[in-house]
Here is the input.
Amino acid sequence: MPIEAAELSDRAEITDALHRYTIAIDTGEWDRLDSVFTRDAQVDYTESGGIAGDIATVKPWLAENLPAFSSARMHTLGQVVITFATPRDEAKVTAYFHNPMVIADAAAGAGATRVVEVGGLYHHSFVRTVRGWRSRRLHEQVVWTRGF
Here is the structure.
């Protein structure tokens, strides 16, 4: 069955929100996350050693901990699967991710760095809002790591 133009537009808007998420995390521009999540969104980073909580709690935690852990981050998203509810105002979204990060390598000497990597799946629950599609829940599933 052909996809309607409105559904294509919804898919593009959700995919754009996923991209805004990775840019916010990679650049450390934490307020960009406000254009990705609902105000009451729940975020779960526990599989990668982080916290779970509402976005108001997670944002300052990211701002404090992620730059201290990694001096450079660069996400790549792969497959994105979007499954809409009926009517089409909610969606379950899974996106493959690869996230290499530069961290300090104290064992190699002062100023030395190394690259570590995380691969996994971002599981989102998106909802249509007056401000566009927003994630109201994110669970980061770690599938593999390298270099830790």
In short: Residues 5-27 form the longest helix (23 residues). The first strand starts at residue 37 and ends at 44.
